[in-house]
Amino acid sequence: MVDLWQSLLPEALSSFDFILLIIVSIFTSAITAAFGVGGGATLLALMANILPANAVIPVHGVVQLGSNTGRLLTMRKFIHWRITLWFIGGCAVGSLIGGQIAVSIPKNWLQVILGSFILVMCWEPFKIKAIRDRSSFLLGSVTSFLAMFVGVTGIFVISTLKHIIEDRRELIGTMAAMMMFQHLSKCVVFFVLGFSFSDWGWLIVLMIASGFIGTLLGRNLLNRMSNQGFGTAIKILITVLALRLLYTGITSTING
């Protein structure tokens, strides 16, 4: 039994960390299923303190791929497929470019820029009436490029989409489809670049499975909310996450 358990554990993880990540995946998936964002950023912050630095974004990406796939399946009838398909095309371009070049802007500056932009998108008074095909393609390209380095672009995407899609179920469903394909393109690039996902296989499988339980819990919470209540909650959540990005970026710049 001990040998079997040891075979499940990645070499870099203790048993406590292994179990902790599986349990936390339930709660972070529930947060994202209910509000569209928040869970991925929370999970990334925890994984950054547990996993080796070179494994954080690839492993987080494939777990989020599984989690968003579960949300897509449960919310598929609410998805806006036209803007999603253009977004997917942009994801392929952005991930390929991001995987091939080194970013000249330090990560802490990217965090400051992203945090500031998200706050503007969340609170600016002029509502975006529609998102055209080309702008959806551009949104996919830019966020997928950034996702190769900072991994928090769901906040960026939803701060734009929340002005366009008013129904909470349609917003969560469309976000799930967009983020699933964004994480898929990111994972493909990391695989091509030689990252060994098999070293983390059981952790990934179990986190995806527990995440699906969280998705079902979060969907129940979403169904109980009104669009107005959801709109207020998502605005507060986006603001908190954006301020966290700004804080992390500024403190890294000062300390660095």
Tags for this model:
256 residues, 11 helices
Give the SSE layout.
Elements (H helix, E strand, L loop, with lengths): L1 H7 L6 H21 L3 H10 L4 H23 L5 H20 L6 H17 L9 H15 L6 H8 L6 H25 L8 H24 L2 H29 L1
Helix pairs in contact: 2-3, 2-10, 3-4, 4-9, 4-10, 5-7, 5-9, 6-8, 6-11, 7-9
Report what the structure shows.
The chain has 256 residues and is an all-alpha fold. It is 78% helix and 0% strand. It has 11 helices and no strands. The radius of gyration is 18 Å and the shape is globular.
Q: What is the percent of helical residues?
A: over 70%
* Structural class label: mainly alpha
The biggest beta sheet reads: none
Shape: globular
Number of helices: 11
Low-confidence stretches: 125-130
* N-to-C order of helices and strands: HHHHHHHHHHH
Query: Per DSSP, what share of the residues sits in E-state strands of 2 or more residues?
Result: under 5%
- The radius of gyration is 18 Å
What gap, in angstroms, lies between the N and C termini? 46 Å
Count every beta strand, where a strand is a DSSP E run of 2 or more residues: 0
Would you tell me the overall average pLDDT? 80
